[in-house]
Amino acid sequence: MRKGILDRLNAGEVVIGDGGYVMQLERRGYVKAPHFTPEAVVEHPEAVRQLHREFRRAGADVLQTLTFYSSDEKLQISGNINEAACDLAREIANESDALVAAGVSQTPVYPTHRNEAEVKAIIQKQLDVFTKKDIDFYIVEFFKHVEEAVWAVEVMKTGGKPVGATLCISPQGDKDGTPPGECAVRLVRAGADMVGINCHLDPLTCVRTVKLMKEGLEKAGLKAHLIVQPLGFHTPECNHSGYTTLAEYPFAMEARAMTRWDMQKYAREAYNAGIRYIGGCCGFEPYHIRAIAEEMSPERGILPAASNKHGLWGAALANHGTSFMTERACREYWENLLPASGRPNCPSMSTPSEK
């Protein structure tokens, strides 16, 4: 039998999450912006299946169901989308010992009238499918308001499986100004087994926010495993609302993409902060997940299958025929590189829009 998520984390193992689906599939022509809803699981299951398999081959221990914004109020078509998403993730997970996590995200009704009963009814409808499909554990993710996330955790906890909760907030707190430490305390008291941050801001900013959550839990005398699944882009100038306020969002984010070496630095920072569930969200491609797995290989004792085609820190370049290339076959070169954008007329940063 598969070792469960809490068994792995309780044993001190580093668990590697997968990457971003909706943005990746939008670029490949299977998801439409700005809705970013997951109809592709029934319209183009082969595309979702392939991305699951790529993330798993890159080293992901967990495959998340493509159920982002998958409520009747958000979806562009009707059908058994949540069921199809669960089946696809389970199909690929069954090729190995990977776990399947089902995610629920912020609801469209909360911003307008914050009705607890309506929010919980939407979450419950998804949970009913996840329970039927015997998903391994749940992740409450991409919540801007801790209040709504707490309601979601309370519902998901009734499913009898471990629950993780990740907010898309900055070090300044959630949209209501609730500090990260207090957010973490409320989530754990609601029943979350894992707490942390996902999406909206770059990896090191997200790690910084998780540290604040950890401090809040320690002051309250509470314990929970820490999880981080950030944005895969450089976003140093973002305001409280995150990367969606950037001028480049959503169709010109490529210039901000993080390198594989950026990801190795992120993975090490996360590990040193005490985070043991390390993954990614929008902008994270399979090679980014491979970079995390490679950075964590000393702790984990394994490399992913995708590393068979990749020399660690450019080691394969040592066999190149030119001296300038062989000089790049080392960690020192890639770790200290300041990559150019090749865009001489472009600024290094933009001015975020206020929300």
Describe the structure.
The protein has 355 residues and is of the alpha/beta class. It has one domain: TIM Barrel, CATH 3.20.20. Helix content is 40%, strand content 10%. The chain has helices at 5-10, 22-27, 40-43, 45-58, 81-93, 110-113, 116-132, 146-157, 180-190, 203-220, 260-272, 286-295, 297-300, 323-326, 331-336; strands at 15-16, 62-64, 99-104, 137-143, 163-167, 194-198, 225-229, 277-278. Strands 1-8-7-6-5-4-3-2 form an eight-stranded parallel sheet. Strand 2, helix 5 and strand 3 (99-104) form a beta-alpha-beta unit. It is globular. The mean pLDDT is 94.
User: Which of globular, elongated, flat, extended, rod-shaped describes the shape?
Assistant: globular
Unreliable stretches (pLDDT < 50, length at least 5) are: none
What is the C-alpha radius of gyration, as a whole number of Å?
Answer: 20 Å
Structural class: alpha/beta
The largest sheet, given as strand count, sense and whether it forms a barrel, is: 8 strands, parallel
| Total beta strand runs | 8
Overall domain count = 1
Please give the order of strands in the largest beta sheet: 1-8-7-6-5-4-3-2
Oligomeric state of the chains? Answer: single chain
Q: Report the mean per-residue pLDDT as an integer.
A: 94
What proportion strand? 5-15%
* Element order: H for helix, E for strand: HEHHHEHEHHEHEHEHEHEHHHH
CATH topology: TIM Barrel
| Helix share, percent | 40-55%
Number of H- or I-type helical stretches = 15
N/C terminus separation: 47 Å
CATH top level? Alpha Beta
